[in-house]
Amino acid sequence: AAGRLLSEGRLEALKHWPLPHGGGVRGISLLVQAVAGVLRVPLPPQQCPKDVLIRCQQSMHSERVVSGVVASLRATAQRLDTGPPHTPIDLLSRLVLLSSNFLNQFMAVDGLSSLRETEAFAAHAPTKVMVNGLLIACQAARAAEAHYPALHRANLYESMWQLLDHHDATVRAKTCNLLGNLCRHSAYFYKTLVTPLLSSNSHASPNRGGGGGGGGGGG
User: Fold this and answer.
1) pLDDT at 219
2) Fewer beta carbons within 10 Å, N or C terminal of the chain?
3) How far apart are CA 95 and CA 43, in angstroms?
4) How far apart are CA 91 and CA 169, in angstroms?
5) pLDDT at position 2, please?
6) Helix count (H) and strand count (E) of the chain?
7) pLDDT score recorded for residue 84
8) Is the pLDDT of residue 210 over 70?
9) CB atoms within 10 A of CB 13
10) What pLDDT sits at residue 208?
């Protein structure tokens, strides 16, 4: 039942509720963090009886919790001074890793674009937020080529290149995992991924590849 609090109608009503009484963008942010905090309690890595976990999953799926959380993040993206919220993004990560049903719901509403909008992939975001965002993107890329168009729309390329140089080893490793999974099923991303590397090499060493140029001869 908690998931129903994140329905589109309720979020829209809360957005227009008076600010002094808990409404507006800040009210939505507080609500989604509270709901996500409750819903993630029975999820792995917590130890929970299997039948309870299954019932919780079924309930969250039927109530479209993933869609509600994504809508909440989209409504609050870059409108608060608190940065990307950890608890809702952690809930999304747990659900996406738990079942392809949640992953499909997430990708259907362009969840990765919403995470980017909320600056979950920005170099200044909290490490745990970045790691959860990368885990979701990795799972999407690993699961099926059908998710590639949504991954492309999310436009995480610039963030990936920045995160490869992040001070945290886990962030760097998850970013490398994401790059590998983007190449898992097909050559869909090859040109987009290689072009920045070629550009970088060109700027770093302008004489490289000049006369001897690799067989790209003529037209």
Assistant:
1) 40
2) C
3) 8
4) 23
5) 77
6) 12, 0
7) 80
8) no
9) 11
10) 39
Across the range 67-74, mean pLDDT stands at: 94
Q: How confident is the model over 8-63, as pLDDT tens digits?
A: 889 999 989 998 888 998 999 999 999 999 999 888 887 888 898 999 999 999 99
Q: Which of 139, 35, 47 is nearest to 85 (CA)?
A: 35
Pairwise pLDDT comparison (208 vs 132), residue with the higher score: 132
* Cβ-contact 64, 3 below 8 angstroms: yes
For residue 46, the 8-state DSSP code is: S
**Distance separating alpha carbons of residues 193 and 184, to the nearest angstrom:** 13
Residues, the chain:
219
DSSP 147: G
**Residues 6 or more apart whose Cβ sits within 8 Å of residue 47:** none
Q: How many CB atoms lie within 10 A of CB 190?
A: 11
Q: Cα torsion for 13, 65, 126, 115, to the nearest 10°?
A: -80
As to burial, measured by CB atoms within 10 angstroms (0-12 exposed, 13-18 middle, 19+ buried), residue 14 is buried
By three-state DSSP, how is residue 106 classified?
helix
Nearest to 11 by CA among 72, 82, 59, 56: 72
Alpha-carbon distance of 11 to 8, in angstroms, equals 5
